[in-house]
Each structure stands twice: as structure tokens, then as C-alpha cells.
């Protein structure tokens, strides 16, 4: 739990922001149509002046065939240019009949002052075309890169690693060379952190459709006394997609993400794609864990020396449980191990992950090749998961606005000041206080 807590705390990005001058206070008063209609006093001169200086324009109210107020004429003409077709008589008759049966036809309804303002020009003939064009303008060129990368195969993993700080490029022919950064358009990326000694990465692996890359911290190799080394990925103004599982954690260790000018990196999180396609809510998680534990128990007994009758009985009970909870077989929790098993049918050995919590800097150096193999294996599995979940996401959420929105959701900025350290300290103290209280009661 401490590892997860530290991992989540260090994932936040700290970035300087320009000074934003406070806006003058404005009244937070809600006006209702009934209040306006019953107000016998004229508005004060200041209210009229504020209205004149606002973006609102005068317009006429619009009502449909049964007297329900709709958007103003000025707004309607901008959203739906051209002559509006009349409502079908059959639908009008059906609506009136329905209201009359409930004694609602002809009842007085409150009407409000029409809201009207000038809008940006609609891009297209319909609202569907308008939002599609805006979404494609925001999604490209990343959508094209993501689609290309989803059908690309990763090159074979390097058989031997070079012990060199910074980035090393490994080509398909087995050769290697030092590089400043991968500087690729499409990457799958993962970092490893010696979290009990530093929140900065000690190693990272990345793969494109052409080459493998490995990054080693100068601090890890004893070339620097400071552990505060961020990972460069290349020109920040070059459009690039970076795929990872829980990619926000890896993004916090990328150098270009701390520049004042926002990079053009698009971080695609395979965990988020999985949640959108085959995820579950928090209330479903205990049921899913129970079914997984029962299945593991049945498999263990079936593979042991238990009698055939007992194994058949357990299997029959399992089939009944699966019928009652059909969604269990169509979902999984969000860890890379479970997501990879669900989508790709592969089993990941996470035993070496514990080395990053058990070993010190020298211990990691002694097992450097094995740990780089582990990191590269995670990258390889993540790319295989991406090839499964991205097409499924595009099938589930086909509109380009869904893909375009992910870029902004994955590049959030959290501006903080020195009180952030106090917040972390208070949160840790509260956690330990509650944890100690629970242990004392037990």
C-alpha cells in the first residue's frame, strides 16, 4: 500500500504558470422566469448598461405548435440556417392528445426572456457535420498515427543491453548507438522507479515500429550525484503518440512535459481504453475478485489429485455462477497483468517488479540486464494490448470527438505552490494515524 501511495503521489506534474490576475467579483444571482414576469419595477440603469456591454443581442421568442418555448430566433437561425420545415401534423396531433389526456393541454407555462448571442459560424450543413469536422481537426494527425500504430508489429527485443547512460537505440540488425532521444512519431513507453530512494526514473524502455530504445539514469550508473534526471523524448513540437499503461505515471518523468510551452505529445493510456471497452465500476470489483478466486480454486483442485466427482461438482457450480454473472467473463480489473490476460491471453510474471522495492542502487546495477528485460517485456506486452484495445475503443466510441478529447484529458496540468509539500505531509500523517488506529483496535 505504501508503494501505491508513493506512486500516486509522485505522479503529479508541477509546472510554473503565468500570473493570472483575479477577475472582479460578479453577483451569483439566479433569475427565474416567474420572478421576471411578476417584477413590476423597471431594471436599474446599471443593469441596462451591463446588458448593453454584454454579448447578448435582442431577439424574438420562439414557441412550438403546442406553446412550449424554444431557443430564440437569433440562435435558431445560426444553428439551423435556411427555412425550417413545419412539424408533422400527425406528431402535433399525437402530442396534443397526450397532453389532453393528462389535463395539461392549454395550461399556462412560464416563459423567459429570449437568450440570444452571436455564435461562431457552423462548419457544415448540419450539427453532426459541424462536430465531426471540429473533432477531426483536433484529432489529426494523432488519429492517423494511432491507427497506423495499431496494425504495426514491434521489432524483436534486444538480446543484449549496453550499459550506457541516456538513450541507446537498438536496430533490427542487432546494432546499437547512443542517441539524444527516440524522436519517433509512435512509441510505446514505460519507466521504472527505485521508489524507496527516489521518485525519478532509473531506467526506461520504448519501442517504435522500427527500433527499440533504452534509457539509463546517470545517477544509477554512478555518473551523477543527483538523482533528479528527467527523460527526453525529442522535439516537443513534433506530433507524437506515446502509448503506455497508466501513462500518466510515466509522463511525470518526461522532460518536455515541464516546459512552459505545451508539447504536442498525445499520451494514449491502454488502461483508459480498456476501461471504456471492458471496464467495471467499483461496486462490481468485489464480485469479480470473488469469481476469480473461485475459478483459481477450481483450477487448482482440478489439477490436483482430487477425485473426478469432486472436480466435476466444482466445475458444475462454476458454470452456474458464470451464468448468473455473465458480465464477469467480459471484464477485468485494470492492472497490466489482468488486462493482458483478458485481451491477449498471456500471463505476466511480476516477481521481478519487487526488486525495485527491495534492491538499492548497487543491487539494481548488479541485475541491470534482467531488469531491463523486465521493463522491455512490459513495453512489448503493452503494445500487444494496445493493438487489441484501440480498435475495440474505436468500435465502441467511433466518433472522432471521443478520441480527440483523450489528448486533453491525458495532458492535464496541476499548478501548485509550496503548500503542495504540506498537503502531501498532512495526507501521509492522516493515513498513518488512521492505519495505526485500525491496528490498535484489531
From TrEMBL:
Sequence ranges assigned to domain DNA mitochondrial polymerase exonuclease in this UniProt record: 114-393
Q: Which residues form a coiled coil?
A: none
A GO molecular function annotation here is: DNA binding
Question: One Pfam family, short name please?
Answer: DNApol_Exo
- Highest taxon of the lineage: Eukaryota
Please list which residues make up the signal peptide.
none
List cellular component terms (GO). gamma DNA polymerase complex
Q: Give the start-end ranges of region Disordered.
A: 32-53
Q: Which GO terms describe its biological process?
A: mitochondrial DNA replication
Q: Which PANTHER family match?
A: DNA POLYMERASE SUBUNIT GAMMA-1
Q: What is this protein called?
A: DNA polymerase gamma
The scientific name of the source species is Aureobasidium melanogenum
Q: What is the lineage of its organism?
A: Eukaryota, Fungi, Dikarya, Ascomycota, Pezizomycotina
Amino acid at each position: 500500500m505504501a508503494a501505491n501511495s508513493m506512486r500516486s503521489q509522485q505522479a503529479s506534474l508541477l509546472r510554473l504558470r503565468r500570473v493570472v490576475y483575479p477577475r472582479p467579483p460578479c453577483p451569483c444571482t439566479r433569475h427565474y422566469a416567474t420572478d421576471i414576469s411578476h417584477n413590476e419595477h423597471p431594471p436599474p440603469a446599471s443593469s441596462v448598461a451591463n446588458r448593453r456591454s454584454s454579448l447578448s443581442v435582442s431577439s424574438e421568442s420562439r414557441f412550438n405548435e403546442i406553446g412550449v418555448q424554444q431557443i430564440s430566433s437569433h440562435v435558431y437561425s445560426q444553428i439551423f440556417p435556411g427555412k425550417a420545415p413545419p412539424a408533422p401534423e400527425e406528431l402535433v396531433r399525437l402530442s396534443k392528445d397526450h397532453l389532453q389526456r393528462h389535463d395539461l393541454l392549454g395550461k399556462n407555462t412560464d416563459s423567459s426572456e429570449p437568450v440570444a448571442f452571436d455564435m461562431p459560424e457552423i462548419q457544415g450543413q448540419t450539427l453532426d457535420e459541424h462536430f465531426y469536422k471540429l473533432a477531426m481537426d483536433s484529432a489529426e494527425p494523432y488519429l492517423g498515427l494511432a491507427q497506423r500504430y495499431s496494425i504495426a508489429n514491434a521489432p524483436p527485443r534486444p538480446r543484449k543491453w549496453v550499459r550506457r547512460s541516456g538513450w541507446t537505440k537498438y536496430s533490427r540488425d542487432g546494432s546499437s548507438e547512443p542517441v539524444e532521444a527516440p524522436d519517433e512519431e509512435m512509441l510505446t513507453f514505460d519507466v521504472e522507479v527505485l521508489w524507496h530512494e527516489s521518485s525519478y526514473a532509473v531506467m526506461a524502455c520504448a519501442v517504435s515500429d522500427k527500433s527499440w530504445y533504452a534509457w539509463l539514469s546517470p545517477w544509477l550508473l554512478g555518473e551523477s550525484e543527483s538523482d533528479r534526471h528527467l527523460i527526453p523524448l525529442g522535439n516537443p513540437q513534433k506530433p507524437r503518440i506515446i502509448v503506455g499503461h497508466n501513462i500518466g505515471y510515466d509522463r511525470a518523468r518526461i522532460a518536455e512535459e515541464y516546459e512552459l510551452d505545451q508539447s504536442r505529445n498525445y499520451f494514449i493510456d491502454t488502461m483508459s481504453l480498456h476501461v471504456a471497452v471492458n471496464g467495471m465500476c467499483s461496486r462490481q470489483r468485489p464480485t469479480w475478485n470473488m469469481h476469480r478466486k473461485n475459478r483459481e480454486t477450481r483450477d487448482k483442485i482440478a489439477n490436483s489429485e482430487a477425485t473426478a466427482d469432486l472436480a466435476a461438482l466444482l466445475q458444475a457450480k462454476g458454470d452456474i455462477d458464470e451464468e448468473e454473472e455473465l458480465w464477469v467473463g467480459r471484464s477485468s480489473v485494470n492492472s497490466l497483468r489482468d488486462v493482458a490476460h483478458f485481451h491477449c491471453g498471456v500471463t505476466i510474471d511480476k516477481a521481478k517488479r519487487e526488486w525495485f522495492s527491495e534492491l538499492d542502487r548497487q543491487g539494481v546495477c548488479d541485475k541491470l540486464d534482467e531488469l531491463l528485460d523486465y521493463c522491455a517485456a512490459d513495453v512489448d506486452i503493452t503494445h500487444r494490448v494496445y493493438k487489441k484495445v484501440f480498435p475495440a475503443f474505436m468500435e465502441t466510441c467511433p466518433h472522432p470527438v471521443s478520441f480527440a478529447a483523450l489528448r486533453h484529458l491525458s495532458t492535464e496540468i496541476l499548478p501548485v505552490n509550496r503548500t503542495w509539500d504540506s498537503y502531501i505531509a498532512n495526507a501521509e500523517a492522516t493515513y498513518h494515524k488512521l492505519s495505526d488506529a485500525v491496528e490498535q483496535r484489531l
